Amino acid sequence: MADIERILLAHGGGGQLSRELIDREIVSRFGAGPLKGLPDGATVPVEGPEVVFTTDSFVVQPIEFPGGNIGDLAVHGTVNDLAVCGATPRWLSLALILEEGLELDLLRRVLDSIKTAADDSGVVVATGDTKVVARGQCDGLFINTAGIGDRLPGFELSPSNLQEGDHVLVSGPIADHGFAVLAARESIHIQNGPQSDSAPVHRLVQAASAHAGDVRFMRDPTRGGLASVLNEMVEGAEIGIQIQEVDIPLSSGARAVSELLGLDPLHVASEGRMLMVCSADAAPETLQAWQAMPEGTGAKDIGTVTTEAGRVVLETLMGGHRLVDVPRGELLPRIC
Fold it and tell me: Biggest alpha carbon distance in the chain?
């Protein structure tokens, strides 16, 4: 394949080009573990009484964006779904759908990002699949991942566990990922503009596990952003949530895009942040632990659980109050 620079339909045909693509680009990066020998299914050791299992698909456009690409996004998205369910991520599957004409150099950059993100997250790519479709049928590259993790003891997570006086924590500045993808897609050039926040959050969950019994709920605020997660928690419930605008962490790049386009950052996705609701007693130590970690340096306590049934209220910088609504429709399609 030395003289081939783009994906051909023949790369998906099961013949020599398929073997070369898999051996040179996939096995060379991930073939030391359960993928060795390319079995149809991975054999992985499972310890403990329970595992957590998730799956996700990634169609972000553009494939590369400030701060990341579809590869590390796929790993982080799956790892984070496991983590906020109270699990330690262990294994991933990796399925690639490649479009005829995709540049091999781009595929290599994506695969290198997957390898780096998986190693950093402590997960093994255990099994996978590769398909090639005709030009115009895939928009470059789609990825599907599934993940398995070991459930951590002590976490019993549900919005129904929320109690008046609980605190709402976020692990860092919100909305950077959605704004970074939007800026790249629409060629919005801002000095020191937003960089994707795509990153794993499992170490934040592990840091909070010392107070697992006081943690009510965890979620990564992806599509629909923080507003969707907060409203989901109180929908149909006897409690509500109040957050303070002054405490909501925003990067200067995200703030610039928000003001330029008139978009509410509460509605914009993050891919490397987590939201946690915990007891008032556990909040200070959890926040302190997060702020001592690289992935939690911008963590803030942004609000509390109230008795205003089903309402998410924002206290503004001017001291007023407004309801935080759920985004209508798809505000930013294809950001993951």
Answer: 67
